[in-house]
Amino acid sequence: MDTNRFTAASNEEGALKPPSMLLLALEGRAPWELGAALLAAPMLKDVPAGDGHPVMVLPGLLAGDALTFFLRKYLGNCGYEAYAWKQGLNLGPREGLLERCIARVRELSEKHGQKVSLIGWSLGGIYAREIAKALPEHVRCVITLGSPFTGHPTATNAWRLYQLVSGKPAIDEVQIAELKKTPPVPTTSIFSRTDGIVSWQCCVEQETDHSENIEVHGSHTGMVANPTVLYALADRLAQPEGQWQRFDHRGHQGVKKIIYRDPQRN
Asked: Residue 265: inside a domain, yes or no?
């Protein structure tokens, strides 16, 4: 898959359709993904120990810190200082929201004397990317979970809901062009082709020497508890600062080789 060609096409209105009603209905499997994470606990412990650097998790649309608690608890168990975003429910880009997030990242970075890794779920991933662009000297890496940063807003099943709760238009061509720009820090996009909210093509990053894609199998709403997502997050965060390398899809054997398929396949 040519990611440069693909992301250009996905920005055109009407080029992509929202996920099907079947995939939307399959979003109901999210609780099963949490159950799978609990069953996969032994595998999820078999990851490199964290180095204690701070990680901030940003929730998706209409979600808050309660829905990222399980993920933050897992990151804490891995050895990281995991932080909530502390901005209440994510109701879209309210006035001053991005500035408050930037201030919080700077505060955490100065508190720990280390750069902060950002994990953003869905709309939270859009914020994470923009924070990294504004504050690269304080951000270690960005990892997005099902975030539609390259596609047109109408290629999701949530764009009308976004307009309703945020009071802002979902379609802003200038903003769309800005959002697709890759942050100047190591960046990973984790996506699922069975996402029922966002067309997966809208989550595909242009791969460079500091950006990549990881494909998992699961729902959009269950990404913060999906065991394959958790394992990939631990793998990415464990890399020493300044020594970032792409996720080794081909290096996995056995079950892991089946779970993590090559995201560049057609």
From this structure: no
